[in-house]
Amino acid sequence: MLKYRDEKILTQFGKHLKQVRASKKATQEELAYTSGLSLSQIARIETGKINPTLCTILEIAKNLNVKPQVLLSFL
User: Fold this and answer.
1) What CATH architecture is 4-71?
2) Residues 6+ apart with CB under 8 A from 10
3) Residue 16 near residue 68 (C-beta atoms within 8 A)
4) Full-model pTM
């Protein structure tokens, strides 16, 4: 069970990821395909429903052509 603070952080990360993805003009489908993740996994990350692993964040960053720091700059 996630604590409220954890849920808030995951939601903030997800919103930021969505903004970065949109700025790169990539759809969830495109990001899922290029990163080897499922569409539902991308959607759940962007809505703060799941906590992505460090490896997942690195793969997403690579496929959006941004440094991982960009994805974590919401903090």
Assistant:
1) Orthogonal Bundle (1.10)
2) 2, 48, 49, 50, 51
3) no
4) 0.92
The mean of the pLDDT values for the chain is 95
User: Cβ of 55: how many Cβ atoms within 10 Å?
Assistant: 8
- Torsion, Cα of 27, 50, 71, 66 (10° steps): -50
Q: Is the pLDDT reported for residue 21 higher than 70? A: yes
Sequence ranges of the domains in the chain: 4-71
pLDDT at 3: 79
**CA 65 – CA 75 distance, rounded (Å):** 20
- Report the greatest alpha carbon distance in the chain: 34
